[in-house]
Write a structure and sequence with these properties.
Layout: E1 2-15, H1 24-31, E2 40-53, H2 64-79, E3 82-83, H3 84-87, H4 98-112, E4 118-124, E5 130-133
Parallel strand pairs: 1-3
Antiparallel strand pairs: 1-2, 2-4, 4-5
Helix pairs in contact: 2-4
The structure holds ligand LPXRUNBV and zinc ion.
GO biological process, one term: tRNA queuosine(34) biosynthetic process
Pathway: Purine metabolism; 7-cyano-7-deazaguanine biosynthesis
Organism: Aureispira anguillae
Length: about 140
C-alpha cells in the first residue's frame, strides 16, 4: 500500500530579501518592505510529507516519532529564532525566500531519510503565502 504521512512543525525566523548584485534602488523596487535592512520576521509553518509503502509488520510507513525528531533536531534547531541571513550557513549566498528555505529544508531532510521514501515539504511564510518543493 503506497501512502503518505504528514508532520507539521513551526519556527520563527528573521530575514531580509536582498540581491547583493543589485543597487539599493533596484532591491527596494523588487523586494519592497522585505528588503528592510533591519530585517523582519515570520512565523513559518512547515508541513513535511513522506510517502512510500507501509511495512506490513508494523503497519507504519515511517515512525512519526522518528520523523518529528528529525525535524526538531535538523530543521527547528537550525532555523528557529534565527536570523536566516546572518546565522544560517546555507543563506550566506542564497536569498532566504520561501522557495529557497523550502529547498534547503528538503535537502537536509532528504539526506536523513531512507531513499525508499518520497519527500515533499510545504512551507507557509504567512497563513496565505506558501510554497511546495519535492526535489524536482
Ligand atoms: N515568491 C515569493 N514572493 C515573496 C516572498 C517569497 O519568499 N517568495 N517573500 C516575501 C516577503 O518575505 C514578505 O515579507 C512576505 O510577507 P508579507 O509581506 O507579510 O506578505 P503578505 O502581505 O502577502 O501577507 P499576508 O498576511 O499573507 O497577506 C514577499 N514576496
Ligand atoms: Zn519576509
Amino acid at each position: 500500500m503506497y501512502i503518505s504521512v504528514f508532520r507539521k512543525a513551526h519556527f520563527n525566523a528573521a530575514h531580509r530579501l536582498h540581491n547583493p548584485n543589485w543597487s539599493a534602488t533596484k532591491n527596494e523596487a523588487i523586494f519592497g518592505l522585505c528588503n528592510n535592512p533591519h530585517y523582519h520576521g515570520h512565523n513559518y509553518e512547515l508541513e513535511v510529507k513522506v510517502s512510500g509503502e507501509v511495512d506490513p509488520e508494523t503497519g507504519y510507513l515511517i515512525d512519526l516519532k522518528l520523523l518529528s525528531d528529525l525535524i526538531r533536531d535538523h530543521i527547528e534547531a537550525k532555523l528557529d529564532h534565527k536570523n536566516l541571513n546572518l546565522q544560517v550557513e546555507e543563506f550566506q549566498n542564497l536569498n532566504p525566500t520561501a522557495e529557497n528555505i523550502a529547498y534547503v529544508i528538503w535537502h537536509i531532510l532528504r539526506k536523513k531519510l531512507d531513499e525508499k521514501y518520497d519527500l515533499m515539504v510545504r512551507l507557509y511564510e504567512t497563513p496565505r503565502n506558501y510554497v511546495e518543493y519535492e526535489g524536482k
